[in-house]
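REQUEST
  id: r-88c1
  op: predict_structure
  target: Leucine-rich repeat and WD repeat-containing protein 1
  payload:
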Amino acid sequence: MSKITTELLLERAVPRSTRLRKIETLNLSKLQLKTGDLDPRLFSRLRHLQKLDLSDNLLDKFPNSLTLPDLRVLNCNNNKLQDVTALKQFPLLEELTYENNVYLTLNDDYKVMFLLQNLRLLNGKDITKLANHVRRVNSRKLTSKVTAHWEKFFRDQLPEKYTAEQVKSIKKKFLKSVQTNVVYGPSSLSEFTRWRVKMIAEELLACSLGLDLSTDPESEEMVDETEEESTESPREAAEDVDQVVYIYDPLVTVTPSKRKRNHSKPGSGNKRSKTQANAEDAEPLHFLQCHSKGNSREDFKTQLWSCVFEPLLDCGARKDPIMSSSRTVATCGGESVCLIDCETGTVLKKYKVATEEFFSVAWTTLTMVISDSRKKSHNILAAAGRRGIVKLIHVAADFCYGEIKAHKKPIATVCFSPTRETHLFTASYDKRIALWDIGIPDCDYNFKASQLLVLEALSIPLRMALVPTCPDQYLLAGCEGGCFAWNIKLDKEQKSRPFEAIFQFPDEDGGMTTSHRVDGLAFLNDDVVVSKSSKPGCIYLWSWSRSFDTKGKGCQRTISAVILAELEWSPTDLSYLTLSTCPAKDYVFCGDEKGSVWMYNLSNYTTAWTSAKGKRSDRRIPPTQILKWPELRGNGEQLTEVLINNVVSDPTFTFLVVLTSVNITAIWKKS
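RESPONSE
  id: r-88c1
  status: 200
  body:
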């Protein structure tokens, strides 16, 4: 990594110079520079610098005190900038380019137009006329709306003699209300509008009323015409303390309890298998309470349902999954969706819809056209729940750019096709699974979604899994009334399709049945399916190919699943405690009704199962390890009766994310 020194600055000056104060043009492109390399003390000596090229580096922001009083031209192309507000420190800037910074959006263009009064060229385009409109007309309209909002709803709430606490309270209410209710311009500029409204509101209170508004930055809110949505950036979590567990949340204080190390033996009365002997321990890392309704400190009731790791853009979403997942995970439950850094426990972003209860999230990577017809990959998060609406979120831009009104009843789960990046499946309480093409948004976030298929189910679909060997042809779904398969091939004319097969499994009486709730479903590899629960205390592993081959070419719709093995699990009859797999490591995970996570390392079995003559394992396979729920206290009381709704690992099984019924996201790390 190149570090900036006096010698480097003199060498990269155009032309080369012998004194820093004489440099007027400086080229620092293609040096792999990060924000920390821009030393304000060194840059303060560039008193006469007018042109600066920082293109093709790794900058995510600008330091606030570079002190370049004469800077006129700045090139920041091809970096990782996430914010432009620090550019206001260059008031004489006339030309600015920051193309191919994937986190910057149209809203940032409007921010720099407002902040830099002398700016004439932005990304090579003359913006003089538009900038004047933003600085004058836009500001005048917004100021009028903000003032009217204060006069109508808040002015009379402030008494003649007020305390500091009263000022703080009314300021908080006013800023939240005005950002929610003052709307102006197109929805694609809603972030800029909120930013300006907040600025104008603070100026109104400070100037007109003489209030001191120097406060800590508060999170901005994402708002559309009908509901309140917000993107929050909570403060960084405290560091983990050895042998102590905290719930890391900016809004909640939880008493720490000593951690109990997990060395428990799984399954009473079972001998320790070879698989168990080779178990790799996982230890608790973070416990987060970040989905609270209304940000309430008292909320230990919100159910958390779904989580999925974000793919890495650099590796491509369609390549080897082991190399294409980050340590960032999206979680959902209650009114919010959170993005969490599993290593640090930091809640990176929070997206909230006050009228929603989110049940499912899924990632895809879209190749979008940016400026000058160039293409760039962006991760898009789909989130859905009780309202039957799919929200489409461009996470890097902190922007919910659209929604699809997919169903009139709640959506239980969603998933993207692994081969077609715009194809999204939505499974609903209306007993239908719909396939959508969500389209690709243009540079102004205009997009067009279309429905391609409707799959009819006999009961509510709870879990979906595309068959790995033919993901464009067959879809499996675990439903309230059984396990079904559909032909989803798009070359068929029929847009509405019944199921093609229903699978039957052994029941508690030794017979076979198709009528049972299947609330857990996932593929362990290209052929082995893992499902629960046809009967309490059991998870089945079965062969897709050997089961489906029995269907032949006839019209048979009921198929016996070819069972490979049974996994020993909790005897509970509680439903919706779902399972997941880590195919690269041959692991299966499933939580229970006591806050424990059952882990099964099946690497010693998979080779035998994939052979054509692979036989069923005679005895139930016990878990390799059971992770016990540690002692945690919230509001002075120990948290008990914890249900594990979902457990998901990243593809390398470095992190294990556990979602609970008590509004806690637990993150474990393989030691």
